[in-house]
Amino acid sequence: MSKMGRPKKKIDWNVVNGLCRIQCTQTEIASVLDISEDTLVRRIKSNFDMTFAEYYKKESAGGKISLRRAQ
Questions:
Q1: What pLDDT shows up at residue 43?
Q2: N or C: which end of the chain has fewer CB within 10 A?
Q3: In whole angstroms, what is the distance from residue 4 CA to residue 51 CA?
């Protein structure tokens, strides 16, 4: 007998990246995506083989550049 769970929610990584660039928190990102923080962390690990902190640092760098440019 196979184990059946809920289907995985599709995550739009462009949205996640945009939220990282505007310095949203992990909680805020998960909320926008309507998923739990744990799910966000697990999906980043499975899709990109990195922690949330590593992913966030990489993706938020572009936002910091834009902010400096605007200043």
A1: 97
A2: N
A3: 27
Q: Pull the structure tokens for residue 29.
A: 């990102």
Mean pLDDT, range 6-15, rounded to an integer: 91
Q: How far apart are CA 29 and CA 7, in angstroms?
A: 20
Write the CB contacts of 4 (distance below 8 Å, at least 6 apart in sequence): none
Cβ atoms within 10 Å, residue 34: 8
Q: Report d(CA 1, CA 68) in Å as an integer.
A: 56
Q: What distance in Å separates the CA atoms of residue 66 and residue 63, rounded to the nearest whole number?
A: 5
pTM above 0.90, yes or no: no
Give the CA radius of gyration of the chain.
Answer: 14
**Residue 52 main-chain phi, psi, to 5 deg:** -60, -45
